[in-house]
Design goal:
The complex is a heterodimer of chains A (456) and B (584). Chain A is an alpha/beta fold and 456 residues long. Helices cover 39% and strands 20% of the residues of chain A. Chain B is globular and about 70 Å long. Classes of the chains: A alpha/beta (456), B mainly alpha (584). At the A-B interface, strand 6, helix 2, helix 4 and helix 5 of A face helix 1, helix 7, helix 8 and helix 12 of B.
Chain lengths: 456, 584
């Protein structure tokens, strides 16, 4: 590490000299599938320069946390390189310190001891550790809590300990993995504000920050650059936005709103549009297969709830407003939006989510009727259709889950396969197309669905 | 940043108060200091007796004078704690090696699984012979053998527990350690050991309870015609039995009970209460373990003073241990070299095992022929039947009782510690009384043996059933009341599924305990009369006494086979079912 941790925290403004601190070159990360490697990150090229805050934004499962950990040297990339100051990483990055979503405080150590950990690891004598930790604790607003144990603190105070622990080592780059998402809204807002004040004041003892988040507003509030990662078919950088707005940023400023809308559009943009450009993965609607049409993680209750809310707004609503009104974050809302779209119950046009005629009928119908509508829609979903047709051509009308598991294993990691089947089970059960017995792990065709499905 | 959260009074008053507290010695400090001195003195006095010269050919005399009992009890206690210390050391090293090395893990963990199923008592004779050869002419030989026997009953369980906590270390703690560049030493003492501490202490306590049984069995043992007896409570009872002295047996039982309860009170209870501080949870627990002794210690100034002394030492050690390196994993491993290393390791490990196995088979063929396995296989069926009956009857009797106790918080408060003591009390201590009863009533040992096995094993079922019943949420029970689900239907729908996971845990322990107990309960002696049942346990015990190693190896191997078989075919599927279907 270039900087000495024993030195007093610098009072001068950080040098925004644009030196490239972290870089990813052609970085790909894959996990083992059934017969081939399944990428979660593909061809990532990214640079983090001194003086900037970079936000990695994306839905869950898009690989943003994986990218952060590759840059921190905690997990190896499958191909390509992660570099720190131009040198490829061979182990944990010496120039970064991590702030965790779950705080990762050691509950058996006091606040002071937790903050000193990074210095102790460097072999600093006790007296120097105490001085440096005291300064960091001061800086982050934790004084008075030195002898407290983490379990005595509120969530916000705990994350302050997380920040102090990382900042005391004076890393070149502070890595934050969804640092505010485990906090309630007010606490998160407050802590975020204080952190940005500190960054602007020049007392911040790091030269750059990388923050992983799924919260669009948080990204636009904090970052100089927002990098949007797309989830499917696999994580790649879909767009990069520079945020030239002066800090502190005004949420009500028109440029702020325009940026949020623009980011929203990129994030809700249909996956099939992007998928179509990829070689070997033709994904025109006519040729949808379980492989190129993954089911979003959305429950039937959530879908019909969203449909009913849209009906109250005359079948159409601005997505950003909708999320705001529901107090939801992208992570919660987007799978529902994707699922409604996939089922042909709603469409995303511009910034708006609009119900289709079928979606409108689905939202208004009583339970039995809505089940029928949902069944028709679900049969157009490749995986649901695959399960129904496979069951129909099996004399016993039952099939082990392992059969579908094997079919999907060529295209998804085993975790993803489990999720796909869970959603398909949930939808199929609700639509009364088939039942699933968790004991023997068997799908069984429902009597009502024994007739061949309508062509879709 | 806001500084309004700082309570200004704390800063100025804290050091002043500390200084005041340190200068004021209270009577509590004096009591604690005196207690420590007494313990040290007793250890020195008692420990001095372990290395006296000793002639294995001479039959050691153990007095039956009750006045000698305190000394004997102290000697036994020393053995128990020596074995515990050994088990902890073994656990830390073995589990760490298995968790850290991918290659060693492949060998160490299956080995542990087998070791856990081997009936320890069968190997006692081998241990005695080995240790006597190691320390000729000193009582350290049998002493070590006894400690070793207790150790083998404790270590596997603790090692498994700690290994499990090492490999299931929360991901963010692992990342914390690597991201902040912890040294290996720091990772172990600050992250890994604290994370596993609670499991280690509770496993240690359970294993310690089981250890009494092996203490009693290992203090007086006959191997190859020699009778070895160490001064201790087990041999005291053994002598009293041999002389048919019921009064002496009574005194021994009383002392044993006092010891079990006493150790629990001054050692385990404070330890389990203290170790709560390592709970990895982010909120203050509502239901905490409490201990009078720990509260007392915490009120004295000693922990604070010792902490001050220890901190510089820890600092120096931590610095010296930097030599062990930083906790980091290389990001890229050459796959060819890695596979090459794997191949070499597999070849060496496989070669050693294969060579050992061939040698063993050759040994058996030369001595007795491989047909030696036939008899124990048949006899095993008889013992298996006994084990099954014991578990079945204990289930039928204790599950209803345990449910009744567990559903009533008032009963549970009284009964749970009591059952814990009963489970810890070495059942083989009561065998002579039971034998006397068999002799008086003429009950066959083939049936009576089952009662002896049950004497120790049944409590695990009761204990776990109580715990399971207590874990059934009150709102589920209220919902059943509300719906009018009572009687058989209530048992079928709520109670049995609810207690099932806990019951399976108890059942596994009980069945393992019953197998081990078979070695001492199928042959019993009282006042010169020996009763022998038909079974694998008696077979192993016989072979031990005669020093007949081929038959001993065959007997122990077959018994291990039965234990592993029963675990794999019955308990493990049940356990999996409990985890997937009936986890509450």
């Amino acid at each position: 590490m270039a900087q000495r941790a024993t030195r007093a925290l610098p009072a001068t403004a950080r040098a925004a000299d644009g030196e490239v601190l972290l870089a990813a070159r052609n970085l790909t990360k894959s996990y083992a599938g059934a017969d081939k490697q399944l990428p979660v990150l593909a061809d990532i090229d990214l640079e983090v320069r001194a003086g900037e805050i970079v936000a990695l934004l994306g839905k869950s499962g898009c690989g943003k946390s994986t990218l952060l950990r590759c840059l921190a040297g905690l997990i190896p990339p499958t191909s390509g390189t992660a570099l720190y100051r131009g040198e490829p990483l061979t182990g944990a990055n010496p120039g970064t310190a991590m702030v965790f979503q779950t705080f990762a405080l050691l509950p058996w150590l006091t606040v002071q001891q937790n903050v000193e950990l990074g210095l102790e690891a460097r072999g600093l004598p006790a007296a120097e550790r105490a001085t440096a930790a005291g300064q960091a604790i001061d800086l982050i607003g934790l004084d008075g809590f030195e002898t407290a144990y983490p379990k005595e603190l509120s969530g916000g105070m705990r994350q302050r300990v997380g920040f102090a622990r990382a900042l005391v080592t004076e890393p070149d780059v502070l890595m934050m993995d969804e640092p505010f998402s485990a906090l309630d809204v007010l606490t998160a807002e407050n802590l975020r504000g204080e952190l940005m004040e500190l960054w602007e004041s020049g007392e911040f003892p790091t030269r750059a920050v990388v923050i992983v988040t799924h919260n669009i507003e948080e990204a636009v509030l904090m970052a100089d650059r927002v990098v949007i990662l797309g989830a499917r078919p696999f994580g790649s950088i879909r767009a990069t936005f520079d945020v030239p707005l002066p800090r502190p940023r005004d949420r009500n400023a028109p440029q702020f709103g325009a940026l949020i809308d623009a980011v929203y559009q990129v994030m809700t943009g249909r996956e099939k549009d992007t998928a179509g450009h990829l070689p070997g993965r033709p994904a025109t609607p006519a040729r949808r297969t379980p492989a190129n049409t993954p089911l979003p993680r959305a429950g039937v209750d959530g879908l019909s709830g969203l449909a009913e809310i849209l009906i109250q707004h005359d079948n159409r609503r601005d997505l950003a407003d909708l999320a705001d009104e529901l107090g939801l974050e992208v992570d919660d809302l987007l799978p529902l939006v994707d699922a409604l779209d996939l089922l042909g119950l709603a469409m995303v046009t511009g910034n708006d989510l609009a119900l289709t005629a079928r979606g409108s009928a689905f939202g208004r119908a009583d339970v039995q009727r809505s089940k029928q509508i949902f069944a028709t829609a679900a049969l157009e979903i490749p995986l649901v259709r695959l399960i129904v047709t496979s069951l129909q051509i099996t004399p016993a009308r039952t099939l082990r889950a392992g059969f579908f598991r094997d079919l999907l294993a060529h295209h998804y990691t085993s975790e993803q396969v489990t999720r796909q089947l869970e959603t398909a089970t949930d939808w199929g059960r609700y639509a009364e197309l088939y039942s699933y017995d968790a004991g023997p792990e068997e799908y069984r065709l429902d009597a009502t669905a024994a007739a061949p499905p309508p062509a879709g | 940043m806001t500084l309004s959260t700082r309570p200004p009074a704390v800063r100025t008053s804290l050091p002043a108060r500390m200084a005041g507290r340190l200068t004021r010695l209270t009577w509590i400090d004096l009591v604690v200091a005196a207690a420590v001195l007494v313990v040290l003195y007793v250890i020195l006095r008692v420990g001095a007796g372990t290395a006296v010269s000793f002639n294995p050919a001479r039959v050691t005399r153990v007095s039956t004078d009750p006045a000698d009992l305190p000394y004997y009890a102290a000697r036994s206690l020393l053995r128990m704690f020596a074995a515990l210390a050994l088990s902890v050391a073994f656990t830390l090293v073995y589990a760490y090696a298995a968790a850290r090395s991918r290659r060693l893990e492949r060998v160490l963990i299956p080995a542990l699984d087998i070791l856990q199923s081997v009936p320890v008592l069968g190997f006692l004779s081998v241990a005695v012979t080995g240790f006597i050869a190691l320390f000729p002419g000193s009582s350290l030989g049998p002493e070590c053998a006894s400690v070793f026997a207790i150790f083998t009953s404790q270590a596997w369980n603790m090692t498994f527990g700690f290994y499990h906590s090492l490999v299931t270390l929360p991901r963010e703690l692992d990342e914390l350690s690597r991201s902040f560049g912890f040294t290996r030493w720091m990772r172990f003492w600050k992250v890994e050991l604290p994370s596993g501490a609670i499991g280690l202490v509770w496993n240690g306590m359970m294993s310690f309870g089981g250890g009494w049984f092996f203490l009693v069995a290992s203090e007086a043992i006959s191997v190859s015609g020699h009778r070895y007896a160490l001064p201790g409570i087990g041999s005291y009872a053994g002598t009293a039995i041999a002389e048919g002295d019921l009064g002496g047996v009574g005194w021994a039982v009383l002392t044993m009970a006092v010891m079990v309860v006493g150790v629990n009170f001054v050692f385990w209870r404070p330890l389990t209460a203290w170790v709560e501080k390592f709970k990895n949870e982010q909120s203050e627990a509502t239901d905490v373990q409490r201990s009078l002794v720990l509260d007392f210690l915490r009120r004295s100034h000693w922990p604070h003073a010792l902490g001050r002394l220890a901190r510089p030492a820890a600092e120096v050690l931590g610095r010296a241990a930097r030599i062990l390196g930083t906790d980091d994993r290389p990001l890229s491993v050459d796959p060819v070299r890695r596979r090459g290393g794997d191949a070499v390791f597999a070849l060496v490990a496989g070669g050693l095992i294969g060579w050992g196995l061939l040698d063993l088979l050759g040994y058996l063929r030369d001595r007795t022929g491989l047909g030696v396995f036939a008899e124990p296989l048949l006899l095993g069926l008889a013992t298996l039947a006994r084990v099954v009956v014991v578990v079945a009857v204990a289930t039928a009797v204790w599950v209803p009782v345990g449910v009744r106790i567990g559903f009533s918080p008032r009963l549970a408060r009284i009964a749970q510690p009591l059952v814990q003591v009963l489970a810890g009390f070495p059942a083989n201590f009561l065998f002579p009384l039971a034998t006397w009863f068999f002799l008086r009533t003429g009950l066959s040992i083939n049936v009576g043996g089952m009662m002896l096995m049950a004497l120790g094993a049944q409590w695990y079922i009761l204990f776990n059933t109580i715990a399971g019943a207590m874990a059934v949420p009150a709102d589920l029970r209220e919902a059943m009341d509300d719906l009018g689900v009572t009687g058989r239907l209530r048992w079928k729908r709520l109670i049995l599924p609810g207690i099932f996971p806990a019951y399976v845990t108890g059942g596994i322990t009980a069945s393992g305990g019953a197998w081990n107990a078979s070695i001492v309960s199928e042959i019993v002696t009282f006042g010169g009369t020996t009763l022998t049942a038909t079974g694998l346990g008696a077979y192993v015990a016989h072979a031990t006494e005669r020093g007949d190693y081929p038959h001993l190896i065959a007997g122990v191997a077959v018994m291990s086979l039965y234990v592993v078989g029963l675990n794999r075919l019955l308990w493990r599927p049940l356990y999996r079912l409990a985890e997937t279907r009936y986890a509450l």
